[in-house]
Design goal:
alpha+beta; 3-stranded antiparallel sheet
Length: 202
């Protein structure tokens, strides 16, 4: 368990630069004292960690020390974010949810800045809370609108037409839903009707 925490600590310092012990403690869900003990252990192991004292102090890696998971294109990083966001029945069946959560965090932290941001954005924007699947072209169109912040009209060309700003999607049980960012309201797929995706952003 400590070895896993030390690796995640290394990745946090590598990707985010100087952080305080309090910030690291919050990220790793341990005490600041534990962080300082971990830093001592990493220094003894030969890692170039620098600790700055005072109000502007913090902990950082020295000598441009880097270890990277490289080679991911933008769409690959986004796909990875979707994979990491999806719950796995196998993980749940084996009782490995906590280990999977730690592994996801370490994997994302190992990515270069742009890839990490893309993966995080996708995993936070598209969530799955059920195992249902639907093959509906509107789902792909709505996902495109969410990713590109495009305005959408639901129930297009009907008396009940509404305009929304789609900011997120989720699969709840067997039904998809989209969140209208203007009013923070979820609209289920069954209420979308005919969908018109605008070329205009919001």
């Amino acid at each position: 368990m400590r070895a896993a925490r030390l690796l995640q600590l290394l990745l946090l310092l590598q990707n985010r630069g100087r952080l305080t012990s309090a910030q690291l403690a919050s990220e790793l869900e341990v005490s600041s004292r534990t962080i300082l003990r971990d830093v001592d252990a990493m220094t003894e192991a030969g890692l170039p960690i620098i600790v700055y004292q005072g109000n502007q102090g913090g902990i950082e890696l020295g000598f441009n020390y880097r270890t990277r998971l490289t080679g991911l294109a933008q769409d690959e990083a986004e796909a990875l974010g979707l994979i990491l966001a999806a719950p796995s029945p196998l993980v749940s069946a084996l009782g490995a949810e906590d280990a999977a959560r730690r592994a996801r965090a370490k994997l994302v932290e190992s990515l270069p800045d742009k890839s990490r941001a893309a993966a995080k954005r996708m995993s936070e924007t598209f969530t799955v809370t059920g195992d249902g699947r639907q093959h509906d072209p509107r789902i792909k169109a709505m996902a495109h609108a969410v990713r590109n912040r495009l305005k959408v009209r639901l129930r297009f060309s009907t008396l009940g037409e509404i305009a929304i700003h789609p900011t997120a999607m989720r699969l709840d049980g067997a039904d998809w839903a989209v969140r209208d960012g203007r009013v923070d309201h979820w609209v289920p797929l069954s209420d979308w009707g005919r969908v018109n995706v605008s070329a205009l952003q919001f």
